[in-house]
Amino acid sequence: MSNVDLVQLTEETKKLTAMVVEDEKVANELLSSTFKNFFADVKSCFNGKEALEAYSKSAPDIVFVDIIMAEMDGIELSRKIREINPSQIIIVISASNDIEKISESIEVGVNSFIQKPIDTKKIIELLSSVVSMINKKKKIETKTFSISLPLDLYEIVNDNAKAESISKNAVIIRALRNFYE
C-alpha cells in the first residue's frame, strides 16, 4: 500500500464514474459511500434488472457487481453488459465461495474478482488496478495520435465510428477537415 500515491490515485479515479450493484442494503451503502470518495459519480442499484436499466442510461466506466442477487444475478448482468459493451470494466465483489459461480463469472469475462469482506488495502489495490486497466485501454485506442475530447464529443465520435465501421481517428480527422475547410 505504501507504493501507491493516494492523491494521484484519487486524481485518476475522480475522472471516472462507477456503478455498485449489491442487493444487501448495508453492503450497498458501505460500498457506494466508500467509492464516492474516489469516483466522480457512483450509481447504486439493488438488483441486476435495475442495474441493467440504469447502465443503459449512464454507461459508467466501472461496474462493481455482487454475484448472488434476486431477479437477475451478477453473472447474468455481466453477460448482458458484455453484449452492450464488450470492453466494459466489470469487477465482481462477492462473499461467495462457490467455485462454479466464480468460474462462470470468469467465463463471462469479468475483469477482476474480489472477496468480501473488503478492507482498505484491497480497495486501494483494486482501484490501482482499475486505473491501470483504463490507462492501458486508452493507450490502445489512441495509438496513432493522441487528442483529448470532451466526453460528449468522444461518445459522438465513438458512435459514428461504430456506425460506419471506421476508426475513431478517421472520424476525428474528417471532422477536423470539415471544420477547417
Structure description:
The protein is α/β, with parallel strands linked by helices. It is 56% helix and 13% strand. The chain has 8 helices and 5 strands; from the N terminus they run αβαβαβαβαβααα. Strands 2-1-3-4-5 form a 5-stranded parallel β-sheet, with helices on both faces. Helix 4 links the parallel strand 3 and strand 4. It is globular. The N and C termini lie far apart (52 Å). The mean pLDDT is 82.
Could you give the order of the helices and strands?
HEHEHEHEHEHHH
Shape: globular
Mean pLDDT across all residues, rounded?
A: 82
Count of strand segments: 5
- Spatially, the strands of the biggest sheet line up as 2-1-3-4-5
Kindly name the structural category: alpha/beta
Alpha-carbon distance between the two ends: 52 Å
Give the secondary structure arrangement, pairings included.
Elements: H1 6-13, E1 17-21, H2 25-36, E2 41-45, H3 48-58, E3 62-65, H4 74-84, E4 89-94, H5 99-108, E5 112-115, H6 120-141, H7 151-164, H8 168-180
Parallel strand pairs: 1-2, 1-3, 3-4, 4-5
List its traits:
single chain, 181 residues, alpha/beta, five-stranded parallel β-sheet, 8 helices
Condensed summary:
With 181 residues, this protein is of the alpha/beta class. The protein has helices spanning 6-13, 25-36, 48-58, 74-84, 99-108, 120-141, 151-164, 168-180; strands at 17-21, 41-45, 62-65, 89-94, 112-115.
